[in-house]
């Protein structure tokens, strides 16, 4: 029997690219406490830039111990913020997608026998076989080709797994490890996604991969919800299935919290741990999009999200298993999001969003014909290397004044999002809305540009600017309520308009969209 009078809270985490965030909500979804740890700033000893380490040939990794140490830190920050962990009924989390964590032999036993008087990071220092390849990695083109060929071509792979082969997807990443570092592969007991790795820390055993994040691997059959044997065979040996474990629905309780957290932080022994999922999946869960609404996540990457009733067969972008009620979700991901905006801002006017905003305000919509493509990192959509292309109104290469570059950058990002969303059949109607979330969703000038370019109003959620984080805590609450047969008195999440398209938006941006498509066609292609 659940004691109705006792205070009940739910804890959510987001292990995203640049930081670890944590939030405590009550059973009415009201936010109680929050804390975060910024990897580059708070944990400089790992020497990351934007949360990652870069190699010479497109390899991008992060040390998993960084995330473990960040968890030690964020929990201590929650203690300082006054969190009473004994009120937490359930917790869940989100994480940057596609990255893989390679556990050494004996790791599971270690997770089960942590002593409460030590930090996690000191006790888990030797349980990882290597650094984790993350979603910005673009070094697996050959593995993508091999996987597509083995399964019967890119269209066939997309039909089965929801995506053609993408460099950052975990299947090609595993194949690269298997082929180029067989000793690392051989020494690995289990392979987790970053989401299931984070969940494992809480549950004290290797946690299962959830179906929604699991469909970002090019390994899962999104129709049968089982691993695709042909894809597994192409990416590893006969031990791969066992290394990955059986995937579970995202709304599963994977266990109770491990004794470590009970003894060290005062959690209840029956605090439930709900499967962790991908950050975009969690954002979709947190945004509660209605029919015709589209999510726009402006984190390190920019992504477009929406719920789907049917999987379809995408020509570009991804179909994932849905994290909540919609059976499937569509995802488009642009690698050059906030970090590119931030780097260009620094170059053009120094480290102030206000100064950047002043630059924007001294230009007009349509930017007098100046247009640009700014890829500071290899782009995912379209597949392209880092580059910069800036043109004047006659289509000539140019080097315009900073204010024109500022607008060219943001208009270019929004035009790219519109062009690619149209290409996958996403048609916005008069009643449509874009609901923005993520770190850059506080920037109303950026949201105004998206509203104009899409000719669609942009809203933000009233409760929190990070739907992935809020979504994690909400999923914990909902799955707990279902499991314990409890009615949540939960208030509805609400959204408010922040940017409305100007009446002449379509007239300005429709011809620019045609020009932008041409610029995209002329980009150098990756092999
Ligand atoms: N006012 C702002 N305008 C534009 N971007 C912003 C603003 N404030 C923060 N950001 C961007 O938000 C990004 C972090 O967003 P966040 O959603 O926390 O990323 P992630 O979840 O990928 O770690 C930073 O890279 C920063 O550039
Ligand atoms: O690769 C993808 C989605 O396919 C990225 O969106 C990652 O999931 C990183 O998320 P953020 O840290 O940018 O939120």
UniProtKB/TrEMBL annotation:
It catalyses: D-xylulose + ATP = D-xylulose 5-phosphate + ADP + H(+). Pfam families: FGGY_C, FGGY_N. SUPFAM superfamilies: Actin-like ATPase domain. Residues 296-477 form the Carbohydrate kinase FGGY C-terminal domain. GO terms for cellular component: cytosol. Its EC number is 2.7.1.17. GO terms for biological process: D-xylose metabolic process; xylulose metabolic process. It is an enzyme of class 2 (transferase). GO terms for molecular function: ATP binding; D-xylulokinase activity. The keyword Kinase applies. It comes from the Eukaryota. Keywords: ATP-binding, Carbohydrate metabolism, Kinase, Nucleotide-binding, Transferase, Xylose metabolism. Residues 10-286 form the Carbohydrate kinase FGGY N-terminal domain. Phosphorylates D-xylulose to produce D-xylulose 5-phosphate, a molecule that may play an important role in the regulation of glucose metabolism and lipogenesis. Belongs to the FGGY kinase family. This is Xylulose kinase. It comes from Danaus plexippus plexippus.
């Amino acid at each position: 029997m659940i004691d109705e009078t006792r205070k009940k809270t739910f804890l959510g985490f987001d292990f995203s690219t640049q930081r670890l965030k944590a939030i405590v909500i009550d059973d009415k979804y009201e936010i109680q406490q929050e804390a975060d740890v910024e990897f580059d700033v708070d944990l400089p000893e790992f020497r990351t830039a934007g949360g990652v380490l870069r190699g010479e040939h497109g390899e991008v990794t992060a040390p998993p111990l960084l995330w473990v140490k960040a968890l030690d830190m964020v929990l201590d920050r929650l203690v300082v913020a006054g969190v009473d962990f004994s009120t937490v009924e359930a917790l869940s989390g989100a994480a940057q997608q596609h990255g893989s964590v390679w556990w050494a032999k004996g790791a599971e036993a270690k997770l089960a026998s942590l002593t409460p008087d030590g930090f996690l990071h000191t006790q888990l220092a030797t349980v990882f076989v290597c650094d984790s390849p993350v979603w910005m990695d673009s070094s697996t083109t050959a593995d993508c080709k091999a996987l597509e060929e083995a399964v019967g071509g890119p269209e066939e792979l997309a039909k089965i797994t929801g995506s053609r082969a993408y460099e950052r997807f975990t299947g090609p990443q595993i194949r690269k490890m298997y082929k180029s570092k067989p000793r690392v592969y051989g020494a690995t007991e289990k392979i987790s996604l970053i989401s299931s790795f984070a969940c494992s820390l809480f549950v004290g055993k290797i946690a299962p991969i959830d179906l929604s994040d699991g469909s970002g691997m090019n390994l899962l059959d999104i129709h049968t919800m089982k691993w695709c044997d042909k894809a597994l065979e192409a990416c590893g040996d006969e031990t791969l299935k066992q290394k990955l474990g059986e995937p579970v629905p995202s709304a599963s309780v994977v266990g109770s919290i491990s004794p470590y957290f009970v003894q060290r932080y005062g959690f209840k022994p029956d605090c439930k741990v709900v499967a962790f999922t991908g950050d975009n999946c969690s954002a979709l869960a947190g945004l509660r999009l209605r029919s015709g609404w589209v999510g726009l996540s402006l984190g390190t990457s920019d992504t477009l999200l929406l719920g789907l009733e049917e999987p379809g067969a995408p020509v570009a972008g991804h179909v994932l298993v849905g994290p909540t009620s919609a059976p499937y979700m569509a995802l488009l991901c642009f690698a050059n999001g906030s970090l590119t905006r931030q780097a260009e801002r620094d170059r053009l006017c120094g480290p102030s969003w206000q100064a950047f905003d002043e630059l924007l305000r001294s230009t007009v919509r349509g930017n007098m014909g100046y247009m640009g493509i700014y890829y500071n990192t290899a782009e995912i959509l379209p597949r392209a290397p880092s580059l910069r292309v800036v043109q004047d109104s006659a289509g000539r290469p140019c080097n315009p004044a900073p204010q024109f570059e500022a607008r060219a950058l943001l208009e270019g990002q929004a035009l790219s999002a519109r062009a690619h969303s149209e290409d996958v059949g996403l048609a916005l109607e008069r009643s449509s809305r874009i609901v923005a979330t993520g770190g850059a969703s506080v920037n109303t000038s950026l949201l105004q540009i998206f509203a104009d370019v899409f000719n669609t109003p942009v809203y933000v959620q009233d409760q929190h600017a990070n739907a992935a984080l809020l979504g994690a805590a909400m999923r914990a609450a909902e799955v707990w309520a279902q499991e314990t047969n409890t009615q949540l008195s939960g208030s509805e999440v609400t959204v408010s308009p922040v940017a409305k398209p100007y009446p002449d938006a379509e007239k300005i941006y429709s011809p620019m969209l045609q020009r932008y498509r041409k610029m995209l066609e002329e980009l150098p292609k990756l092999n």
